[in-house]
Automatic annotation (TrEMBL):
First-level EC class: hydrolase
Cofactor note: Binds 1 divalent metal cation per subunit.
Catalytic activity, EC: 3.1.3.5
Functional summary from the UniProt entry: Nucleotidase that shows phosphatase activity on nucleoside 5'-monophosphates.
Cellular component GO terms held in the UniProt record: cytoplasm
Keyword presence, Transferase: no
InterPro entries: SurE, SurE-like_Pase/nucleotidase, SurE-like_sf
PANTHER family associated with the record: 5'-NUCLEOTIDASE SURE, PHOSPHATASE, PUTATIVE (AFU_ORTHOLOGUE AFUA_4G01070)-RELATED
Name used for this protein in its record: 5'-nucleotidase SurE
Cofactor dependency: a divalent metal cation
Cross-referenced Pfam families: SurE
SUPFAM superfamilies: SurE-like (SSF64167)
Length: 258
């Protein structure tokens, strides 16, 4: 790409989160950045979409009273300029494993862009369970920002998005013994959710976070979670459209349906 790319930046932690500020400032060195992000925290909203949202100007760009998906659609169709790439993040907390791909607002923003045919990157920072609830600073996101900026600067011209619709990037914990290495991964299949009832309340708990903290994870080399726990930057090249496969058993059922 001969000219600097137009970059649409969004997130799901809200426009005032330190991760998006760090990302916008880092990407400003390689392209023209437009920030369109939720007014407040919209984590784990998936691809939820609103019918109508309000927009306000913000020092970083535009604040949308809606979901990350709303922000992508608004940024592409109403606020412009039309981007060469959409970048979501940096999320406060990792987005690892197949099961989070439809749950994460950060990843869902990238998926929404992909359905528009726009290359996208979801960027997240791994934090331990003990770190959640503790305030982070823009400097904590340095590794994630550096990796994401590198990919924005080089992936478009390298033809990466001729084969992938979006990239899911996860950087290791800022206090970890990180290798500085970027590895290409696939989403882990590991899943460990529990639910406990106490009277009228049911508590849902993702035990994979506990296992990551303990270093006891079932993921083999080549998976995103294994890479991040080992201190690497994980990059998973993914496609957005749901695929359909031929199933003879279902064909037979359809044929006998009366």
């Amino acid at each position: 790409m001969s000219e600097e790319p137009e970059i649409l930046v969004t997130n799901d932690d809200g426009i005032d989160a330190p991760g998006i500020r760090a990302l916008a400032e880092g990407l400003d060195d390689v392209g023209n950045v437009t920030v369109v992000a939720p007014t407040t925290d919209k984590s784990a909203t998936g691809r939820a979409m609103s019918r109508e949202v309000t927009v306000e100007e913000h020092e970083l760009g535009y604040a949308i009273d809606g979901t990350p998906t709303d922000c992508v659609v608004a940024g592409l169709e109403a606020l412009g300029p039309y981007p060469d790439v959409v970048v979501a993040g940096v999320n406060e907390g990792a987005n690892l494993g197949m099961y989070v791909l439809g749950r994460s607002g950060t990843v869902s923003a990238a998926v929404e862009a992909a359905f528009f045919g726009v290359p996208a990157i979801a960027s997240s920072l791994f934090l331990t369970e003990a770190d959640f609830g503790e305030p982070t600073e823009p400097s904590d996101y340095e590794a994630a920002v550096e990796a994401t900026t590198y990919l924005v600067e080089h992936a478009l011209d390298a033809g990466v998005f001729e084969h992938a619709d979006y990239l899911n990037v996860n950087a290791p914990h800022p206090g970890a013994d990180a290798s500085g290495e970027m590895v290409v991964t696939r989403p882990s299949h590991g899943y460990d959710m529990t639910a406990d009832r106490d009277g009228g309340t049911i508590t849902l708990h993702d035990r994979m976070w506990d296992r990551m903290d303990e270093g006891d994870i079932p993921d083999p080399p080549g998976t995103d979670r294994r890479a991040v726990v080992d201190g690497h930057v994980s990059v998973s090249p993914l496609t957005a459209p749901h695929t359909t496969e031929h199933h003879e058993a279902l064909d037979a059922l359809a044929e006998t349906y009366d």
